[in-house]
Amino acid sequence: MRNIPFNKPYLTGKELLYIDEAARNGKLSGDGVFSKRCQSFLEERYGFQKCLLTTSCTDALEMVALLLDIKEGDEVIIPSFTFVSTANAFVLRGAKIIFADSGSDGDPNIDPTLVEALITPKTKAIVVVHYAGVACEMDTIMAIAEKYGVYVIEDAAMSIDSYYKGKPLGSIGHMATFSFHETKNIQCGEGGCLVINDRKFIDRAEIIRDKGTNRASFFSGKVDKYNWVDLGSSFLPSEINAAFLWAQLESLDLIQQRRVEIWDKYAAAFKEFEEKRFFQIPKIPSYATNNAHMFYILNENKTKRDQLIAALSARNIMGIFHYLPLHQSPFYQSKHDGRDLARAVNYSETVIRLPFFFCLTNEEQELICETVVSTVTSDCIS
Ligand SMILES: Cc1ncc(COP(=O)(O)O)c(C=O)c1O
Fold first, then answer.
1. 125 CA to middle of ligand 1, Å?
2. How many whole angstroms from 25 Cα to the centroid of ligand 1?
3. Residue 305 to residues 132, 265, 337, 342, Cα–Cα distance (Å)
4. How far is 154 from 128, CA to CA, in rounded Å?
5. pLDDT digits (tens, 9 = 90+) for 139-188
6. How far is it, in rounded angstroms, from Cα 216 to Cα 245?
7. Probe ligand 1: pick from 6, 83, 180, 190, max atoms within 8 Å of CB?
8. Please, are residues 80 and 341 in contact by the beta-carbon 8 Å criterion?
Protein backbone atom coordinates (compact mmCIF):
# COMPACT_ATOMS: atom_id res chain seq x y z
CA MET A 1 0.00 0.00 0.00
CA ARG A 2 1.25 3.51 -0.73
CA ASN A 3 2.62 5.56 2.12
CA ILE A 4 1.71 9.25 2.42
CA PRO A 5 4.08 10.97 4.85
CA PHE A 6 3.23 14.15 6.69
CA ASN A 7 6.06 16.04 5.03
CA LYS A 8 8.46 15.51 2.14
CA PRO A 9 11.05 18.28 1.74
CA TYR A 10 10.84 19.84 -1.71
CA LEU A 11 14.01 20.38 -3.74
CA THR A 12 14.01 22.94 -6.53
CA GLY A 13 16.92 21.20 -8.30
CA LYS A 14 19.38 24.07 -7.82
CA GLU A 15 20.44 23.25 -4.23
CA LEU A 16 23.45 21.06 -5.09
CA LEU A 17 24.50 23.42 -7.87
CA TYR A 18 24.71 26.32 -5.44
CA ILE A 19 26.43 24.21 -2.76
CA ASP A 20 29.02 23.29 -5.40
CA GLU A 21 29.41 26.99 -6.23
CA ALA A 22 29.88 27.80 -2.53
CA ALA A 23 32.59 25.15 -2.28
CA ARG A 24 34.35 26.57 -5.33
CA ASN A 25 34.16 30.07 -3.82
CA GLY A 26 36.59 28.75 -1.22
CA LYS A 27 34.55 30.07 1.72
CA LEU A 28 32.29 27.62 3.47
CA SER A 29 31.97 29.21 6.90
CA GLY A 30 29.23 31.76 7.55
CA ASP A 31 28.48 35.21 6.16
CA GLY A 32 29.68 34.56 2.61
CA VAL A 33 28.09 35.39 -0.73
CA PHE A 34 25.07 33.12 -0.36
CA SER A 35 24.31 34.19 3.23
CA LYS A 36 24.34 37.83 2.16
CA ARG A 37 22.18 37.07 -0.87
CA CYS A 38 19.54 35.33 1.30
CA GLN A 39 19.57 38.13 3.89
CA SER A 40 19.27 40.92 1.29
CA PHE A 41 16.46 39.07 -0.47
CA LEU A 42 14.44 38.82 2.76
CA GLU A 43 15.19 42.42 3.76
CA GLU A 44 14.15 43.80 0.37
CA ARG A 45 11.09 41.64 -0.18
CA TYR A 46 9.65 42.11 3.30
CA GLY A 47 11.07 45.49 4.34
CA PHE A 48 12.95 44.05 7.33
CA GLN A 49 15.47 46.52 8.80
CA LYS A 50 18.01 43.71 9.20
CA CYS A 51 17.97 39.98 8.65
CA LEU A 52 20.67 37.66 10.01
CA LEU A 53 20.67 33.98 9.05
CA THR A 54 20.93 31.64 12.02
CA THR A 55 21.34 27.91 12.52
CA SER A 56 17.67 27.57 13.54
CA CYS A 57 14.65 29.51 14.72
CA THR A 58 15.45 28.19 18.19
CA ASP A 59 18.86 29.87 18.00
CA ALA A 60 17.32 33.10 16.73
CA LEU A 61 15.02 33.07 19.78
CA GLU A 62 18.01 32.48 22.05
CA MET A 63 19.69 35.50 20.45
CA VAL A 64 16.57 37.56 21.18
CA ALA A 65 16.73 36.60 24.86
CA LEU A 66 20.41 37.67 24.98
CA LEU A 67 19.68 40.91 23.11
CA LEU A 68 16.89 41.82 25.54
CA ASP A 69 19.24 41.12 28.48
CA ILE A 70 16.70 38.74 29.95
CA LYS A 71 17.70 37.86 33.51
CA GLU A 72 16.45 36.05 36.60
CA GLY A 73 13.04 37.35 37.62
CA ASP A 74 12.07 38.95 34.28
CA GLU A 75 8.69 37.90 32.95
CA VAL A 76 7.90 37.03 29.36
CA ILE A 77 4.34 36.49 28.11
CA ILE A 78 4.04 33.58 25.68
CA PRO A 79 1.14 31.48 24.40
CA SER A 80 0.98 28.04 25.97
CA PHE A 81 0.03 26.53 22.61
CA THR A 82 3.46 26.75 20.96
CA PHE A 83 6.70 24.90 20.38
CA VAL A 84 9.04 24.47 23.33
CA SER A 85 11.72 26.77 21.85
CA THR A 86 9.48 29.84 22.13
CA ALA A 87 9.65 29.53 25.91
CA ASN A 88 12.93 27.70 26.42
CA ALA A 89 15.04 30.50 24.92
CA PHE A 90 13.90 32.84 27.70
CA VAL A 91 13.94 30.24 30.49
CA LEU A 92 17.61 29.63 29.64
CA ARG A 93 18.30 33.25 30.70
CA GLY A 94 16.30 32.88 33.95
CA ALA A 95 12.94 34.33 32.87
CA LYS A 96 9.61 33.37 34.34
CA ILE A 97 7.18 32.47 31.60
CA ILE A 98 3.66 33.81 31.95
CA PHE A 99 1.60 31.61 29.70
CA ALA A 100 -1.39 33.09 27.88
CA ASP A 101 -4.38 31.25 26.51
CA SER A 102 -5.36 30.94 22.84
CA GLY A 103 -8.29 32.64 21.17
CA SER A 104 -11.83 31.32 21.08
CA ASP A 105 -13.83 30.14 18.10
CA GLY A 106 -11.13 28.27 16.21
CA ASP A 107 -8.30 30.79 16.64
CA PRO A 108 -5.28 29.00 18.19
CA ASN A 109 -3.23 32.24 18.32
CA ILE A 110 -2.68 34.11 21.58
CA ASP A 111 -5.88 35.90 22.68
CA PRO A 112 -4.82 39.58 22.63
CA THR A 113 -7.65 40.55 24.96
CA LEU A 114 -6.05 38.48 27.75
CA VAL A 115 -2.58 39.97 27.48
CA GLU A 116 -2.92 43.31 29.29
CA ALA A 117 -4.02 41.63 32.52
CA LEU A 118 -0.81 39.58 32.49
CA ILE A 119 1.53 42.59 32.39
CA THR A 120 3.41 43.39 35.61
CA PRO A 121 6.37 45.71 36.36
CA LYS A 122 8.60 42.66 35.67
CA THR A 123 7.28 42.05 32.13
CA LYS A 124 10.06 42.42 29.58
CA ALA A 125 8.46 41.08 26.41
CA ILE A 126 5.41 39.60 24.74
CA VAL A 127 6.24 36.80 22.31
CA VAL A 128 3.50 36.06 19.81
CA VAL A 129 3.36 33.00 17.57
CA HIS A 130 1.55 33.21 14.24
CA TYR A 131 0.09 29.71 14.29
CA ALA A 132 0.14 27.98 10.91
CA GLY A 133 1.47 31.22 9.44
CA VAL A 134 -1.79 33.08 10.11
CA ALA A 135 -1.28 36.46 11.78
CA CYS A 136 -2.08 37.25 15.38
CA GLU A 137 -4.13 40.39 15.90
CA MET A 138 -1.06 42.61 16.07
CA ASP A 139 -2.55 46.10 16.51
CA THR A 140 -3.86 45.23 19.97
CA ILE A 141 -0.60 43.54 20.97
CA MET A 142 1.53 46.46 19.76
CA ALA A 143 -0.69 48.99 21.56
CA ILE A 144 -0.38 47.10 24.87
CA ALA A 145 3.39 46.82 24.40
CA GLU A 146 3.69 50.54 23.76
CA LYS A 147 1.50 51.44 26.73
CA TYR A 148 3.68 49.43 29.14
CA GLY A 149 7.06 49.84 27.42
CA VAL A 150 7.64 46.17 26.70
CA TYR A 151 9.08 44.50 23.60
CA VAL A 152 7.12 42.45 21.08
CA ILE A 153 8.80 39.47 19.47
CA GLU A 154 7.15 37.64 16.60
CA ASP A 155 7.91 33.93 16.60
CA ALA A 156 7.30 33.68 12.87
CA ALA A 157 8.71 30.15 12.56
CA MET A 158 5.86 29.19 10.20
CA SER A 159 5.14 32.59 8.71
CA ILE A 160 7.27 33.23 5.65
CA ASP A 161 5.37 35.25 3.05
CA SER A 162 2.35 35.92 5.23
CA TYR A 163 0.82 39.32 6.01
CA TYR A 164 -1.17 41.25 8.62
CA LYS A 165 -3.16 44.20 7.23
CA GLY A 166 -0.71 44.35 4.33
CA LYS A 167 2.40 44.23 6.55
CA PRO A 168 4.69 41.21 6.21
CA LEU A 169 4.80 39.04 9.31
CA GLY A 170 8.16 39.53 10.94
CA SER A 171 8.18 43.25 10.16
CA ILE A 172 5.82 44.35 12.94
CA GLY A 173 7.45 43.45 16.28
CA HIS A 174 10.79 44.78 17.55
CA MET A 175 12.34 41.49 16.44
CA ALA A 176 11.13 38.31 14.76
CA THR A 177 12.40 34.80 14.19
CA PHE A 178 11.84 32.45 11.24
CA SER A 179 12.52 28.75 10.77
CA PHE A 180 13.91 27.07 7.66
CA HIS A 181 13.56 23.57 9.13
CA GLU A 182 12.71 20.94 6.54
CA THR A 183 9.03 21.04 7.51
CA LYS A 184 8.69 24.72 6.60
CA ASN A 185 7.59 26.23 3.26
CA ILE A 186 11.19 27.33 2.56
CA GLN A 187 13.82 25.09 4.06
CA CYS A 188 17.47 24.14 4.27
CA GLY A 189 17.20 21.12 6.56
CA GLU A 190 17.91 23.05 9.75
CA GLY A 191 18.09 26.83 9.61
CA GLY A 192 16.46 30.09 10.54
CA CYS A 193 16.90 33.81 10.73
CA LEU A 194 16.62 36.69 13.15
CA VAL A 195 14.86 39.80 11.91
CA ILE A 196 15.61 43.08 13.65
CA ASN A 197 13.22 45.99 13.16
CA ASP A 198 14.60 48.12 16.00
CA ARG A 199 17.99 49.24 14.72
CA LYS A 200 19.53 49.59 18.18
CA PHE A 201 19.89 45.80 18.35
CA ILE A 202 21.75 45.30 15.06
CA ASP A 203 25.42 45.71 16.04
CA ARG A 204 25.11 43.61 19.17
CA ALA A 205 23.19 40.90 17.29
CA GLU A 206 26.15 40.46 14.92
CA ILE A 207 28.44 40.03 17.92
CA ILE A 208 26.18 37.60 19.77
CA ARG A 209 25.75 35.51 16.61
CA ASP A 210 29.52 35.18 16.26
CA LYS A 211 30.55 33.80 19.69
CA GLY A 212 30.51 37.20 21.40
CA THR A 213 33.28 38.53 19.16
CA ASN A 214 33.43 41.62 16.97
CA ARG A 215 34.67 39.52 14.04
CA ALA A 216 32.14 41.13 11.64
CA SER A 217 33.65 44.56 12.38
CA PHE A 218 37.13 43.12 11.80
CA PHE A 219 36.19 41.67 8.39
CA SER A 220 34.55 44.93 7.35
CA GLY A 221 37.73 46.82 8.34
CA LYS A 222 36.18 48.75 11.26
CA VAL A 223 38.68 47.31 13.81
CA ASP A 224 42.21 45.95 13.28
CA LYS A 225 41.75 42.79 15.36
CA TYR A 226 38.75 41.00 16.74
CA ASN A 227 38.16 40.21 20.38
CA TRP A 228 35.72 38.76 22.90
CA VAL A 229 33.44 41.73 23.60
CA ASP A 230 30.09 40.30 24.81
CA LEU A 231 28.09 37.17 25.49
CA GLY A 232 27.46 35.04 22.44
CA SER A 233 27.44 31.63 20.88
CA SER A 234 27.78 29.90 17.53
CA PHE A 235 24.54 30.92 15.82
CA LEU A 236 26.01 31.55 12.35
CA PRO A 237 25.11 28.97 9.65
CA SER A 238 27.63 27.84 7.07
CA GLU A 239 27.60 28.83 3.41
CA ILE A 240 26.50 25.26 2.60
CA ASN A 241 23.17 25.89 4.36
CA ALA A 242 22.87 29.36 2.86
CA ALA A 243 23.54 28.07 -0.68
CA PHE A 244 20.79 25.46 -0.24
CA LEU A 245 18.47 28.12 1.18
CA TRP A 246 19.15 30.46 -1.73
CA ALA A 247 17.88 27.83 -4.19
CA GLN A 248 14.65 27.70 -2.19
CA LEU A 249 14.23 31.47 -1.85
CA GLU A 250 14.70 31.89 -5.59
CA SER A 251 11.66 29.63 -6.05
CA LEU A 252 9.58 31.20 -3.29
CA ASP A 253 6.72 32.28 -5.56
CA LEU A 254 6.49 28.92 -7.27
CA ILE A 255 6.55 27.07 -3.94
CA GLN A 256 3.90 29.35 -2.48
CA GLN A 257 1.68 29.01 -5.53
CA ARG A 258 1.69 25.20 -5.30
CA ARG A 259 1.13 25.22 -1.53
CA VAL A 260 -1.86 27.56 -1.87
CA GLU A 261 -3.33 25.18 -4.49
CA ILE A 262 -3.02 22.26 -2.05
CA TRP A 263 -4.52 24.29 0.80
CA ASP A 264 -7.46 25.47 -1.32
CA LYS A 265 -8.16 21.92 -2.45
CA TYR A 266 -8.37 20.69 1.15
CA ALA A 267 -10.61 23.63 2.07
CA ALA A 268 -12.93 22.98 -0.87
CA ALA A 269 -13.19 19.26 -0.08
CA PHE A 270 -14.05 19.91 3.58
CA LYS A 271 -16.24 23.02 3.37
CA GLU A 272 -19.50 21.07 3.25
CA PHE A 273 -18.50 18.95 6.25
CA GLU A 274 -17.53 21.98 8.26
CA GLU A 275 -20.91 23.53 7.48
CA LYS A 276 -22.52 20.32 8.77
CA ARG A 277 -20.36 20.74 11.91
CA PHE A 278 -18.35 17.54 11.63
CA PHE A 279 -15.22 19.58 12.37
CA GLN A 280 -13.70 23.04 11.94
CA ILE A 281 -11.14 24.01 9.31
CA PRO A 282 -8.70 26.92 9.71
CA LYS A 283 -10.21 30.40 9.72
CA ILE A 284 -8.27 33.15 8.01
CA PRO A 285 -9.32 36.44 9.68
CA SER A 286 -9.93 39.41 7.37
CA TYR A 287 -6.74 41.07 8.66
CA ALA A 288 -4.57 38.09 7.70
CA THR A 289 -3.37 36.29 4.58
CA ASN A 290 -2.81 32.57 4.26
CA ASN A 291 0.73 31.41 3.45
CA ALA A 292 -0.46 27.80 3.20
CA HIS A 293 2.02 26.52 5.71
CA MET A 294 -0.29 23.91 7.15
CA PHE A 295 -3.76 22.46 6.81
CA TYR A 296 -5.37 21.33 10.04
CA ILE A 297 -8.75 20.16 11.24
CA LEU A 298 -10.17 20.86 14.69
CA ASN A 299 -12.23 17.91 15.83
CA GLU A 300 -15.05 17.97 18.34
CA ASN A 301 -12.98 16.20 21.00
CA LYS A 302 -9.78 14.23 21.57
CA THR A 303 -11.44 10.84 21.02
CA LYS A 304 -12.61 11.85 17.57
CA ARG A 305 -9.21 13.34 16.77
CA ASP A 306 -7.41 10.17 17.84
CA GLN A 307 -9.85 8.01 15.86
CA LEU A 308 -9.16 10.10 12.78
CA ILE A 309 -5.39 9.76 13.24
CA ALA A 310 -5.88 5.97 13.54
CA ALA A 311 -8.13 5.78 10.47
CA LEU A 312 -5.59 7.69 8.39
CA SER A 313 -2.77 5.56 9.75
CA ALA A 314 -4.65 2.38 8.77
CA ARG A 315 -4.35 3.63 5.20
CA ASN A 316 -0.69 4.57 5.69
CA ILE A 317 -1.51 8.28 5.74
CA MET A 318 0.31 10.29 8.34
CA GLY A 319 -1.96 12.80 10.05
CA ILE A 320 -0.42 14.15 13.21
CA PHE A 321 -1.21 16.09 16.36
CA HIS A 322 0.68 19.26 17.27
CA TYR A 323 1.90 21.21 20.29
CA LEU A 324 1.26 19.94 23.81
CA PRO A 325 0.34 22.89 26.09
CA LEU A 326 3.58 24.12 27.65
CA HIS A 327 2.00 25.14 30.98
CA GLN A 328 1.19 21.46 31.54
CA SER A 329 4.59 20.14 30.42
CA PRO A 330 6.61 18.01 32.86
CA PHE A 331 9.27 20.75 32.93
CA TYR A 332 7.06 23.78 33.50
CA GLN A 333 3.94 22.44 35.24
CA SER A 334 5.23 23.14 38.75
CA LYS A 335 6.44 26.64 37.75
CA HIS A 336 3.14 27.68 36.14
CA ASP A 337 0.95 29.98 38.22
CA GLY A 338 -2.01 27.61 38.12
CA ARG A 339 -4.30 29.53 35.76
CA ASP A 340 -6.54 27.27 33.71
CA LEU A 341 -5.71 27.68 30.00
CA ALA A 342 -8.55 25.60 28.68
CA ARG A 343 -8.42 26.73 25.06
CA ALA A 344 -4.74 25.88 24.65
CA VAL A 345 -5.51 22.43 26.05
CA ASN A 346 -8.50 22.08 23.74
CA TYR A 347 -6.56 23.00 20.57
CA SER A 348 -3.84 20.59 21.57
CA GLU A 349 -6.33 17.75 22.07
CA THR A 350 -8.43 18.29 18.97
CA VAL A 351 -6.03 19.38 16.22
CA ILE A 352 -4.87 17.08 13.45
CA ARG A 353 -2.47 18.23 10.75
CA LEU A 354 -2.83 16.63 7.33
CA PRO A 355 -0.01 15.71 4.93
CA PHE A 356 1.18 18.90 3.25
CA PHE A 357 4.09 19.14 0.82
CA PHE A 358 4.82 20.51 -2.65
CA CYS A 359 4.86 17.12 -4.40
CA LEU A 360 1.64 15.79 -2.86
CA THR A 361 -0.22 14.39 -5.87
CA ASN A 362 -3.89 15.04 -6.62
CA GLU A 363 -4.54 11.33 -6.23
CA GLU A 364 -2.91 11.27 -2.80
CA GLN A 365 -4.82 14.32 -1.69
CA GLU A 366 -8.10 12.81 -2.85
CA LEU A 367 -7.37 9.65 -0.86
CA ILE A 368 -6.65 11.76 2.25
CA CYS A 369 -9.87 13.78 1.83
CA GLU A 370 -11.94 10.68 1.18
CA THR A 371 -10.50 8.98 4.29
CA VAL A 372 -11.21 12.01 6.47
CA VAL A 373 -14.76 12.40 5.19
CA SER A 374 -15.66 8.71 5.39
CA THR A 375 -14.23 8.49 8.92
CA VAL A 376 -15.97 11.54 10.39
CA THR A 377 -19.30 10.72 8.75
CA SER A 378 -19.28 7.01 9.65
CA ASP A 379 -21.39 5.73 12.53
CA CYS A 380 -18.46 4.03 14.18
CA ILE A 381 -16.88 7.34 15.19
CA SER A 382 -18.36 8.13 18.56
C1 LIG B 1 6.44 28.31 16.84
C2 LIG B 1 7.78 27.68 16.67
N3 LIG B 1 8.87 28.31 17.13
C4 LIG B 1 10.11 27.82 16.99
C5 LIG B 1 10.31 26.60 16.36
C6 LIG B 1 11.70 26.07 16.24
O7 LIG B 1 12.19 26.10 14.93
P8 LIG B 1 13.61 25.44 14.58
O9 LIG B 1 13.36 23.98 14.36
O10 LIG B 1 14.03 26.13 13.32
O11 LIG B 1 14.51 25.71 15.70
C12 LIG B 1 9.22 25.90 15.86
C13 LIG B 1 9.42 24.62 15.18
O14 LIG B 1 8.64 24.18 14.38
C15 LIG B 1 7.93 26.43 16.02
O16 LIG B 1 6.83 25.79 15.60
1. 18
2. 31
3. 18, 21, 29, 17
4. 5
5. 999 999 999 999 999 999 999 999 999 999 999 999 999 999 999 999 99
6. 22
7. 83
8. yes
